[in-house]
Automatic annotation (TrEMBL):
The keyword Iron applies. This is Ferric uptake regulation protein. One of its GO terms (molecular function) is zinc ion binding. The keyword NAD does not apply. Fe cation binds at E115, H132. It comes from Amphibacillus xylanus (strain ATCC 51415 / DSM 6626 / JCM 7361 / LMG 17667 / NBRC 15112 / Ep01). Zn(2+) binds at C100, C103, C140, C143. Keywords: DNA-binding, Iron, Metal-binding, Repressor, Transcription, Transcription regulation, Zinc. Belongs to the Fur family.
Amino acid sequence: MEHRIERIKKQLHAQSYKLTPQREATVRVLLEHEEDHLSAEDIYLLVKDKAPEIGLATVYRTLELLSELKIIDKINFGDGVSRYDLRKEGATHFHHHLVCMECGTVEEIVEDLLEDVEAIIERDWGFEVKDHRLTFHGICRNCRSSNQSK
């Protein structure tokens, strides 16, 4: 974790920002809960345990900055709540998600499934793709199994 925090600190410094104690507490929460797709409010409650003096507005500003710098991604799974996801180290694209419409679980697909589609878009439309997001909404394996056994 310390290695990853140091790299994020360098990313911030490269853009003339500092890793303040409040930003560091926010980053630590994101690292500790990397698989959880937390909302700003969830992050705030967890950060408050580490830094009781921090305010919700500070957490929001930190999340927006980290998002602008592409350290995290702001995502929405269609439920009206923005969630935050750390970019995987070395990732050139946002990763994909599978969202279960019954139990709400979210699975991540790390491989880039759209490389061929990007090449077609660039070739046929002359459009330079910088990033993409792909979210599938459906029924997860566990819910399908429990529905079939009923």
